[in-house]
Amino acid sequence: MSFLEVKDIKKSFGKTEVLKGVSFNLEKGEVLSILGSSGGGKTTLLRCLNFLETPDSGTISVGDKLLFDGDDKNMLNDEQIRENRLHFGLVFQSFNLFPQYNVFDNVTLAPKLLKKGTNEEIDAAASELIEKVGLTDKIKNYPCELSGGQQQRVAIARALAMNPDILCFDEPTSALDPELTGEVLRVIKGLKESGSTMIVVTHEMEFAKNVSDKIIFMADGVIEEMGTPEQVFGNPKSEKTRNFLQNSLEKI
Q1: Which residues is 7 bridged to in the sheet?
Q2: What number of other Cβ atoms are within 10 A of residue 140's Cβ?
Q3: Which DSSP letter does residue 70 get?
Q4: What are the C-alpha distances in Å from 136 to residues 114, 128, 140, 157, 209?
Q5: Exposed e or buried b for every residue in 58-70, given b needs 16+ CB within 10 A?
Q6: pLDDT tens, residue by residue, 36-63
Q7: Could you give the CA distance from residue 132 to residue 249 in angstroms, rounded to a whole number?
Q8: Is the separation of the CB atoms in 157 and 184 below 8 Å?
């Protein structure tokens, strides 16, 4: 059994069918990059995995635990949703830091609220994470005093502070200038080297090619192509994938 199993996830908003039956597996320590044009369903898939949206049908399992079964409508109460979210960490493209808190407090707030250890343990872990993302010298700074790349690195440390099974990134560099993109991608590469399991929605083709174990290309609410970076970039079978990659690579 794979570490993450997603089977036939569907999601509609009104009459608009956004996810039309998405299935994939991910092993522990693997990095999955999800590519695709805007409107293909990538962000909705991440939001379903993080239980910010409830799928209409399908199943989601992590380890040996079934987190969601669309056939069991009584499965998800508010407490269960909160518990399920702890399996996933989500880093947003717009950072979403708390402006009234400094770097250290942004990272420690949620673990302390959820009593994920003693205050001393949480503080020590937060200091390590802030060092890991290269921001020890900014530990008392507020978000307004940080660059976009620094804010995104704080957001990554904050997500890691909850010790999630799977770390998800929703286009983590899309709000950044090119010179700041590299510093965030370097942090994500470092997380891969330390064995983190990650799902990354990205438009960074070179990053996806070099860091991912698996690539998914989504279009019109379905997985159009899935495989290793060598397969998807080197020998795409789908015409939609070929056109997307050609257009994306032309922009680099």
Answers
A1: 59
A2: 10
A3: T
A4: 24, 9, 9, 12, 30
A5: bbbbbeeeebbbb
A6: 998 999 999 999 999 999 999 999 999 9
A7: 32
A8: no
At 77 the pLDDT is 87
State the DSSP H helix or E strand holding residue 217, giving kind and residue range, or none if neither.
Answer: strand 214-219
The alpha-helical segments, DSSP class H, found in the chain are: 42-49, 78-85, 103-113, 119-132, 148-161, 178-193, 205-211, 229-234, 239-251
Q: Is the sign of the CA dihedral 188, 42, 219, 6 positive or negative?
A: positive
Signed CA dihedral, 28, 34, 39, 40: sign only: negative
Q: pTM of the predicted model, to two decimals?
A: 0.93
Give bridge partners of residue 11 from the DSSP assignment.
Answer: 19
Mean pLDDT of the chain: 94
Longest dimension (CA), the chain: 55
DSSP state of 41: S
- Which pLDDT value is given to residue 142? 98
